[in-house]
Design goal:
about 500 residues; alpha/beta; FAD/NAD(P)-binding domain; D-Amino Acid Oxidase, Chain A, domain 2; 2 domains; 9-stranded mixed β-sheet; 8-stranded mixed β-sheet; binds flavin-adenine dinucleotide; FAD/NAD-bd_sf; FAD dependent oxidoreductase superfamily protein; FAD-dep_OxRdtase
Length: about 500
């Protein structure tokens, strides 16, 4: 029987808006339950079947193979498979190449600030290698991203970030092939976009995130994964009867596990209350757009080739990918663009986005904003009166209080691991974070504790600001609102500091 407390619980809501990416659901996995009943005891429970849960399961089986162990893993999913942010995002794997560098350097030093950026850049190759190795059909496409700055003050700040990183780490900046464009005319000529005052381009990619995640889950099932959809976790407690084990509770029964990996992103505090001040559900929106005749092959200006970040101001970033068709053969199938953002429409009404889980509802003004977007920004666009917009949807992002993901074992909860809080910017972070957490968990399974070597490998693999330290775990600082330009003016403290405002320029806001 469910109580009123249960109905208030932070879980995915029913009847959510339909995103483009769910137009080709996986009929085998959608509502799958590998076994009719839940297993009673396993080595690992993974909570969540989005990209983080899927990649973690994939890496975990690879780790188990390395150490020659059979492992029992169950993946619990509250709703249908992979129906959260991964099925509602922009499909954009866009490492941030320099924006925010000085802010991070002032907090963590230049080496770590640079590491945060090189970590993201390495994700593109990880995706390409994985897709090639496993022959995954997810429309993976490697191209270049163009960041366009529309405001002079934002552009000036971006240029300073670029210069600062370049002078400290010229090899990394050159190695990442980051090129800046200072001349607005040249910028428009290269991009077809009107009104930008500064731009930068660098390698990036796009793919169909749902197809990647479900393909990885299929592979993991082939190696023994038990997937249980429509099975929300409601609590994780220390087992009374079996010391050192965790009891993962769901409305369908409990599972005892030595290890739990929390990959539930925005919804984490729904069953781990300590995360209530750490990860917040933040509502965002995106849409799909059919290319106009003017931007199709054989026309002028012709097809859009880059992916884009449209930087309108702190925290206010639109992003777009031009899909190249479906399957393993680029050019076949629909080539819709995915465009997200529209933050200017609702950012100043906190209730519309902050601590909001209603992705069953449209964001106010988003449809109209997206409808006018292409004509406003792309020279010679000749789409229809609705701006060629097809589907508009909402999605729930997991924003972390300090704007960086939490990755690691929870202090005082040995065996419970978290990989969440991607703050609207999971694609360039999830491959590295999920691999690092999997190797930590494998060490614990193999040795009964996390060995010093495994701990060191984890720390070497991940930028230190991502580690789930006790300090971060107990921190009460929340930079989210200020980073989005909506700080509480009645609070004089850190929440409104330059640091938070600068972080807003850096924040990988994908609302
Ligand atoms: C509109 C929008 C646009 C975005 N655009 C981009 C982009 O272009 N590039 C980018 O890098 N990032 C983007 N993001 C962010 C990106 O989608 C996320 O960072 C990423 O998908 C997170 O993956 P995840 O697996 O951690 O979370 P999710 O995909 O949200 O998966 C978490 C899963 O956990 C399940 N779950 C929750 N609670 C429970 C529970 N109690 N029990 C069991 N299961 C539970 C959920 O149902 C869900 O399936 C965007 C997000 C949105 C919403």
């Amino acid at each position: 029987m469910s109580s009123s407390k249960d109905s208030d619980r932070l879980l995915p809501v029913k009847n959510r808006l339909e995103p483009f990416w769910l137009c080709e659901r996986d009929p085998v996995l959608q509502n799958a339950r590998t076994t009719t009943e839940l297993p009673r005891a396993v080595d690992v429970v993974i909570v969540g079947s989005g990209l983080t849960g899927a990649m973690t399961a994939y890496h975990l089986y690879a780790e188990a193979e390395k150490i020659g162990r059979r492992i029992n893993v169950v993946m619990l999913e509250a709703d249908e498979v992979c129906s959260g942010a991964t099925a509602r995002n922009g499909g954009h794997c866009k490492p941030i190449p320099f924006v925010g560098y000085r802010t991070e350097a002032s907090k963590h030093g230049q080496t770590i600030a640079n590491q945060l950026l090189t970590f993201e850049a390495s994700a593109l190759k990880q995706y390409a290698d994985l897709v090639a190795k496993e022959d995954i059909n997810c429309d993976m496409h490697v191209t270049r991203a163009f960041d366009i700055f529309f405001r002079e003050d934002d552009a000036a700040s971006g240029k300073k970030d670029y210069e600062a990183r370049k002078s400290a780490f010229p090899n990394d900046v050159n190695g990442q092939d980051i090129r800046v464009v200072n001349d607005p005319k040249e910028l428009e000529r290269l991009t077809g976009i009107k009104g930008g005052c500064f731009g930068a381009n660098y390698p990036a990619g796009h793919l169909w995130p749902y197809k990647l995640a479900t393909s990885l889950i299929h592979i993991a099932i082939g190696r023994g994964l038990n997937l249980q959809t429509h099975t929300p976790v409601i609590s994780v407690k220390e087992s009374n009867s079996q010391p050192g084990q965790w009891e993962v509770n769901t409305p369908r029964g409990s599972i005892t596990a030595g290890q739990v990996i929390v990959a539930s992103n925005a919804y984490t505090s729904g069953f781990l209350p300590d995360f209530k001040d750490l990860i917040f559900p933040v509502r965002g929106t995106a849409c799909s757009i059919t290319p106009a005749q003017s931007h199709s092959y054989g026309a002028s200006p012709g097809p859009i080739k880059y992916t884009y970040g449209f930087r309108h101001g702190p925290g206010e970033v639109d992003y777009m990918i031009p899909r190249q068709g479906r399957g393993r053969i680029p050019g076949v199938g629909d080539k819709s663009y995915i465009l997200g953002g529209a933050k200017g429409c609702f950012l100043n009404d906190l209730s519309q986005w902050y601590d909001n889980k209603q992705d069953d509802q449209y964001m106010p003004g988003a449809k109209e904003y997206f409808g006018g977007f292409m004509k406003k920004h792309f020279a010679d666009w000749n789409g229809n009166e609705k701006g060629n917009v097809d589907k508009v949807w909402s999605g729930i992002l997991g924003y972390s209080a300090d704007l960086l993901p939490y990755v690691g074992e929870i202090p005082d909860k040995p065996g419970v691991f978290v990989c969440a809080g991607f703050t609207g910017h999971g694609m360039p972070r999830i491959p590295g974070c999920s691999a690092a957490i999997s190797s930590l968990v494998a060490s614990r399974i193999n040795d009964g504790f996390i060995t010093a070597n495994a701990q060191k490998a984890f720390q070497d693999a991940l930028p230190q600001p991502y580690w789930l330290t006790r300090e971060r775990y107990t921190s009460k600082v929340n930079l989210i609102k200020a980073a989005m330009g909506q700080g509480d003016k009645t609070k004089g403290a850190l929440e409104n500091s330059d640091e938070a405002v600068l972080a807003g320029r850096a924040v990988r806001a994908k609302l």
